[in-house]
Amino acid sequence: MNFRRPPRDAAVEPLLLRADDGRELTGLYWTPRGRPRSRVAVVCMHPRVDFGRHYTFPRLLDAGIACLGANTRNPNNDTNTIHEEILLDVNACVKHLKRDRGVARVVLLGNSGGGALNAFFQAQARLAAPERIATTPGGARTFLPKAEMIPADGMIYLSAHRGEGQIMNACIDPAVVDEADPLASDPALDMYAARNGFRPAPEWSEYSDAFVQRYRQAQLARVARLDAVARAWIADAGRAAALRADPAFAELPAERQQQILRREVVEPVMVVYRTMANLHYVDRHLDPSGREYGSLLSDRPDLMNLRLFGFGRTCTPHAWLSTWSGLASNADLIRNLARIEEPTLVIHAGRDREIHPRTDAQPIFAAVRSADKRFHEIEDARHYFEPDFGSDDESARERLMDVVVPWIQERFEG
User: What is the pLDDT of residue 277?
Assistant: First the structure.
């Protein structure tokens, strides 16, 4: 995600920002040298990935557009990422630019998971404070109705998926039969079994319509089971909190009081095995595109499915419901797009192995409410518009910026 060449003539300043709920976050603020108070600025964030040196920044800075690449409060680790909290981090960036830096127009650039994050923020920021989400999917009170939120002026979605929960709905392995055993499996639901249509690379697999239907239903059923596990943990803590608040608590034996207090404050971590099992990884006929076999994270998703490095592999119950459950999460890009009217640019990478045209890109653009909306596809680009492995060809990123820079200038530099 980092730029290959540093900006030609820019200054950079490390920032420490404070969100409305008191939490701190860090970022890098890049400005064209000699123009520290740029009129237009871009904010680029992701729920967990460090976008401080995002690959779009050099061309944006060349055009006189300032760039703030910021981390959320959970950099590089989303075990406890609550989307209703990290919206406040996006808000801290927008407020800092408008209040402290004299920026007149702020554009949110959402790459990959940053798209759903930004849309969720914008949808909430456009509401009056009392209308904002008051509780998380896990039932915890949010700070959103108390926060002073300032919406951005424009939205850009680069290879944006429908939300981390929607990603999980599509890539969680429904063959898992025991959440405590990564190898316990139902052969009838194993997408990586030859009997069900799997073929190893470079040969594409092809699954029957009946298998696809059973598989997708079983994926949602597993997500629902994990939702129930998360809610049970949260409910147990809630019951303990009620016991602690009861006047009779003071009369209980010390050992019993300690048991109740422990139950109230315990923060279990859910381990979610095998989350690299999207049928699209190995069956291109389900949603045809120019992508290669495999996933964003591996050419061998059948093996990566058993490794630690996958989506949502560890999370607290509250984080599971807020971020990774597609049945519970509010960070649903398509649902939030219907509440946003600011100018919107959607760009799809034709070789993307995670974002697919009929499943993702087209429905996302169709959901955009703004009257000023544009869709653009760069057919031979990968997810981060990066060159092929071992290549120095930056042409995809240059063509991307040939679209992004004029789009911003035409709307916000007047």
Answer: 97
